[in-house]
UniProtKB/TrEMBL annotation:
A GO biological process held by the record: leucyl-tRNA aminoacylation
Entry similarity comment: Belongs to the class-I aminoacyl-tRNA synthetase family.
A GO cellular component entry from the record: cytosol
Gene3D superfamilies: 3.10.20.590, HUPs, Isoleucyl-tRNA Synthetase, Domain 1
Originating gene: leuS
Name of this protein: Leucine--tRNA ligase
PROSITE patterns: AA_TRNA_LIGASE_I
Entry keywords, A to Z: Aminoacyl-tRNA synthetase, ATP-binding, Cytoplasm, Ligase, Nucleotide-binding, Protein biosynthesis
Amino acid sequence: MKYLFKKIEPKWQAKWEEAKVFEAKDNSDKPKFYGLVEFPYPSGAGMHVGHIKAYSSLEVISRKRRMEGYNVLFPIGFDAFGLPTENYAVKTGTHPRIITDENIKRFSNQLKKVGFSFDWNRVIDTTDEDYYKWTQWIFLKMFEKGLVFRDRTLVNYCPHCKVVLSNEDSQGGKCDICHSDVVQKSKDVWYLRITQYADKLLEGLKDVDYPDNVKQQQIHWIGKSKGAFVNFDVDGIDEKLEIYTTRPDTLFGVTFMVIAPEHPIIDKYADKITNMDEITAYRNECAKKTEFERTQLVKDKTGVRIQGLEGINPVNGKKIPIYIADYVMMGYGTGAIMAVPAHDQRDYDFAKKFGIDIIEVIKGGDISKEAYTGDGEMVNSDFLNGYAKKKDSIERMLEELEKKGIGKAGVQYKMKDWAFNRQRYWGEPIPLIHCPNCGVVAVPENELPLRLPDVKDFEPGEDGQSPLAKIDSFVNCTCPKCGAAAKRETDTMPQWAGSSWYFLRYTDPHNANALADMDKLKYWMPVDWYNGGMEHVTRHMIYSRFWHHFLYDLGVVNTPEPYAKRSIQGLILGPDGDKMSKSKGNVVDPLDIVEEYGADTLRTYVLFMGDYGAATPWSENSVKGCKKFLDRVAGLTDILSEESVSDELEMKLHRTIKKVSSDIENLKFNTAIASLMTLINEITAEGHLSKNDLTIFIKLLSPFAPHICEEIWEFIGGEGLLAVSEWPKYDEGKTIAKTVEIGVQVNGKVRGTIVIPNGCEKEKAFEIAKADERIASFLEGKNLIKEIYVPNKIVNFVAK
Ligand code: ANZ
Ligand code: ZN
């Protein structure tokens, strides 16, 4: 037959839908498999071939699981709140609801045309009020449990998008959305206390199957540091300056202290400080820098000595100067450090520039050149002298500090609390009320969802206020506690809110009484396998793991960890090797490929193009190659015969079942497809195959190219749909060759080859070798001294 994709693809898509074969059953005796892909943001640009690749891994695995007898949940939805839609609404005056609905329609159409086996009855849209009701509900539970707090702080602010950004969304000092420079601004911020879950997020990594680099990135992001808090007296004032250090063992090497420019002690004792003008000028300079700039390891350190205050080293009573410098951050530890220039490079650079003493306390380096950060014998350190191991000296010092009441062991995290509000329209309204009498009060649960009001003007105010602040009917309300006139919070939740729990909703998407029914959660959770991009490993994955741990503590879900296994796809690059982007004009529209070469071709190509985890450039030629392969697959029906393939080919067929089955599990889709390509070459060369042989072939190919395989299945009279037929099993015995060809050496030189039964005894191998005419001629007239046989590899005769 011919691969008439335009005819067969819509036909099978309709049959699958009609037979409901991709609908997950909540009550089933079969084992369950929950495969999850990162749901798309329905942007105006439509779907990208990168989405197709991202969804194809679990598409193939889900199709294989159904054929293996699993009850499969493979859902899709839309993460639809967010700035791009809102910016487009501002530009065009169209309501974001209308834009979102259109984009979702377009995305759904694209996904259906590619033939993905999603369960379309469970589609989620995070902007749907039946959905965001539960996003708000989870937020209120966090509020109830003290995990929501408000603080006026310096925040990363994007002047272009007019939004506050989390550190995660402003890495490198650039806005993650528009890439403009981020500035520091003082604002009221709602935080989620994610740091309270830092240890659980670290511990949980022990129980999940994530790639090593994914775990490492999360560990690094959480950034747990073990150290000590130590109190330094400040000469002349009745207050201690507390520092955080990971190296209490170096206390005798402290020659100065540094505090962050924002440290409150400065204002508190401004009257004692004699150079406030200089300090104020320096603080103003620092306010212009982003945290990123401040933490760069630049040698050129800046700072100002605080005149009028001096610190006292608690272990030896020595007076030491105190500086303010921008390399110390207010947001980490205590915002103050003890500086040990001999053993910390930043302190070293600072000391060199400001002419401060450098005292060596650990031997092993050359401190005339740079700080020594390695291990070594302790010197100049009183009771620590002679200690050789960092671990021991730290332990000994901590003992001393605790005994004298000067300090104690403690931990710190790099991860900060999650800034959880945006001054924009298209997001979940934060369900809180500001009451003049009661303070901040939760919107009562039975009033959820707190709906987004209909507005005409989506532009944020110039003062950085949310557009909601302009809607009096939304803002003005009564306090649920005391009935006084009160005002609603007008900020909305960040883009990451809706995606922090969406995988739970798929298990029970239409539930009006709970985010999901516990029995359904117990049946489906955890997600067995979650595939997505590296860019979501530290934000989305950490946020959603945090929410899930919280819900577990609340008793609302049944497992602490949401995802049992995680895998990562590589990017698809343009043919030019650059990242595909609209501005470069190198984006490939999946529907163009479906139109010209067929959905099966597109599906096969995105998995054949390279290692699944690697970034690979798009190649139209290889697309054509995949199309040709499928043409040949269709052509197999033309060489059907009563006769099966040869023994040799039957062995290869069984080896291919084995290889494709295990390659799919290991995300080695390209080699799985390559082995099917090799097999078809050999079958074509032999010129015939039986119905049974063809059945095996199309079953193996069907997760990749399901439409053409269904068509062939129907053609050869297969029963029911191939999508729910049985995955082929291989016969281990048949994967083993009956005979093998091996070399025969005489006195170390290869003199010929022989064919022996696979795994035969050595006597048999020698017998066959000696019977070979050519070998016999080399042995003739000589004495056989030694016979060597390496099974299935080689025979070696030594003769004189
Ligand atoms: C003395 C010392 C001696 C330090 C030494 C290091 C080496 P991690 O591992 O990242 O937790 N530090 C503490 N608070 C800081 C802040 N707010 N801003 C900038 N630096 C700060 O790093 C902890 C170390 O970073 C601390 O240990 C402190 O310097 C510095 F040989 O104290 B250390
Ligand atoms: Zn009140």
